[in-house]
Structures are given as structure tokens and as C-alpha cells.
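Fig. S4 source data, part A: sequence.
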Amino acid sequence: DGGDSWQELSKRMPTYSNVDRIAISPTDTQVIYVVQESPNRGGQPVLLRSTNGGQKWIQINKGLNLTKNYVSDLKVSARVPGEIYITMSGFDSGQKVFFSSDSGNNWTNVSGTLPNIPVNCIALEGSALHGMYIGTDLGVFYKNDDNTDWQPFQNNLPNVIVNQIEILPLINKIRIATFGRGVWQTPMAEQAVGIEKVIALQKDAAIYPNPLRDGNLNVVLPEFNGLFKQIQVYDIAGRMLQEQKAATGRQQIDMSALSSGTYIIRIITSEGVLSRKVQLAK
């Protein structure tokens, strides 16, 4: 109702204190994660999960040292239910980024050889390779499943504290907010696209029918056969709803499970990325 009325969801939390971070699962809005301060000065904060919209909360910070390290960010995967990432802001060497594949029941340290500086934020690429970016006190770092460790991602970026990262998959960009140096943007890590290749891709692509009525959308890229990699379907809020690999220049996407509305089809090739709006009218 546009904020006219509110319902408290924290009444059943173990303690009644400040909540510093919140993240909602994109695949199930009943699943909520929060970081809550300790009510006792100097006590350890807690990481909590609810699977029923806040009616019940359980603690999920087993194995995490939250006394020495402040949880600076919390993100939930839009691709795989149960995948969560947290970042730590502090100077505890090797305790920077943690990952859980089971909704926080167990945690894996994925800090690698990151320098001993605060990590302030994380953004998930939403790709099949689980690409992710972190903002630190020394710029941006990137990692995906093909990399064994984090890589600096800051060509032409000054040494700057990065406070927030936003991914714009529909235009193949990431944007960052910095301390004292404004807002910057750069292409996403998965490719650098030349303008000539984008123009050729736009001319070559055929996506039909549009509007779509029976749920089966055809995507044809005859001149890009063999270079076709993936097709992704996003809603207008930027959430990825479907993804499929593509080996040939002719593909069909089954969108029959989606509701009527406007969707973005993102076509990824080794030569560039193309996004098109499609209207689903059942």
C-alpha cells in the first residue's frame, strides 16, 4: 500500500536490538536474513534466518567470528536457492568473504589472498560462473568459478574506498559509489564489448513472436552460430528468472510458467551482449 501501513517482523528475534543488515531471497520472499547487534556492549552480533516471513528466527553464524569482524554486507543469490555471501569490514587477516550453499547452516571462507583491508560490499553477477565483485578500501576485486583467487578490477580507477556496487546486467555495466571520489562505472567482467560488434549483433538478432502468447520464444542469431553462449530472462525489476546455455544460433525459450508482463531477454555471445524487451500476453 505504498508504505501507508507497516508490520513488525522482529518481535520473535532472540534479542531486541539494532538490525544492521537485511537481505531477502529473490527466489523465496519468505526467506529473510539479518545481521543483528548484540544487546550487550562488546558482545558478538548474530546472523539470523527466517523461512516464514519473520515468524520464527534461527541463528546461523556457526563458525563465523563476528566479535572481531563487522558484517559489512549480505547478499543472497538470485540463481541458486540457499547461496549466501557475506563480507567483513575489519583488519583480521584472511577473514574477508564467506559463502554458504545451505542457507547459512555452514560457511566457507572464500577470502583467498585478499589484502588485509576492510571489505565493504559485495555484488553478485548472476552468471553461470558465479561472478562476484567486492568493494574494499582499495578499490574493486572480482572472482568467478574460473578464477582460483580474487583479481583486482580497477583499471583507471583511483585508489579509493568503495562503499557500494550495483550491477546493471541489461546494459552490461557495474557502477560503484566511493568515499570522496563520486560515482564510477565500467563494463562487467565477463566481456569487453566493442561498438562495431554490438551493432552487428543487433542487426543479426531475430526474437519472435513479440508479443508472445503461447510461451515459446524463438531466438535466432544465424551469423553468430557457434558463438552463442547463454540466454537470460529478466523481469523489469532486474531479477533473473531463467537462464539456459546455447550452443547454436537458433534457440527456443519456454516462458509458459511466467505471468503476463514485460520481460528482458539478454543474449550473451562471445562477440557481445544484446538485450531486448518482450511482451508476454497470455
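Fig. S4 source data, part B ends here. The chain has one helix and 22 strands.
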